[in-house]
Amino acid sequence: MSIPTIAFDADDTLWHNETLFAVTSQQIGALLAPYADPENLHRRLVETERRNLRLFGYGVKGFTLSMIESAIEVSEGRVSAREIQEILEAGKKLLAHPIELLPQVRESLESLAKTYNLMMITKGDLFHQESRIAMSGLADLFTAVEIVSEKNSDTYRKILRRYHLDAQDFVMVGNSVKSDILPVLEVSGRAIHIPYEITWELEVAELGDPDPSRCRRLQSIGQVAEVLKEFFQP
Ligand SMILES: [Mg+2]
How far does residue 109's CA lie from ligand 1's centre (Å)? Predict the structure, then answer.
């Protein structure tokens, strides 16, 4: 029997991410309050991000550009150069923000790495994700790191093929039902969902009632080892 591969999402699975975006959104909401109420701005931002995903992809840079576009829209062109500069600064701050690992991440990965091949599959801006992986100090625990532009069934199929993995021996662990769970089940892999405290609007999806022999939902990464034992018991 080959050694199973356990792949981990990074943002909001291994380290905090969405909370940082939420705090930045709130700060920009306060900055632009003279032009629009923060809820309206937020709605506009989500729409703009959705529209721009195809062009900008995921990550802080796309978020920053979409925020500027939304600011111009809600202010009907009245937003000042100084205010746009503050939005840019907020984006740069997000890019430079230190990595904060979620609880039990390091010890869980260290222990799992003794039994399984660990892989990281994350989407987002290549340059930023590479620097965060380096900053996280976790890179050595993974036999492979994949930074992809989208996580759909095609992406997972390609990764399985590239690494000569059998879907039966592949488990994805992540916080996003849409990106980490549903497409993996679709290619006959197994998945472990660990929800994060908040979910980005563009990642929201329903999991339904999946077969427990193929998919589980856990509170913490510390419980993953136990589920893997069940998944791979002889
Ligand atoms: Mg994630």
Answer: 16
Residues paired with residue 4 on neighbouring β-strands, in sequence order: none
CA of 10 to the centre of ligand 1 (A): 6
If you measure from the C-alpha of residue 34 to the centroid of ligand 1, how many angstroms do you get, rounded to a whole number?
33
pLDDT of residue 155: 98
Length of the chain (residues)? 234
Superfamily of domain 5-16+100-231: HAD superfamily/HAD-like (3.40.50.1000)
| CATH number given to 18-96 | 1.10.150.240
**Cα 166 to ligand 1 centroid, rounded to whole Å:** 23
How many whole angstroms from 93 Cα to the centroid of ligand 1? 20
Contacts of 154 (CB under 8 A, 6+ apart): none
> How many angstroms does the Cα of residue 203 sit away from the middle of ligand 1?
9
5-16+100-231 and 18-96 have identical folds: no
- As a whole number of angstroms, the distance between CA 216 and CA 190 comes to 9
The rounded Å distance from CA 183 to ligand 1 centre is: 14
> Which residue ranges make up each domain of the chain?
5-16+100-231, 18-96
Of 117, 172, 122, 178, nearest to 145 by C-alpha is 122
Residues 112-131 have pLDDT tens digits of: 999 999 999 999 888 999 99
Cα separation, 173 vs 163, in Å, equals: 18
Regarding pTM above 0.85, the answer is yes
Tell me the two tokens of residue 202.
Answer: 């563009």
Ligand 1 centroid from CA 122, angstroms = 7
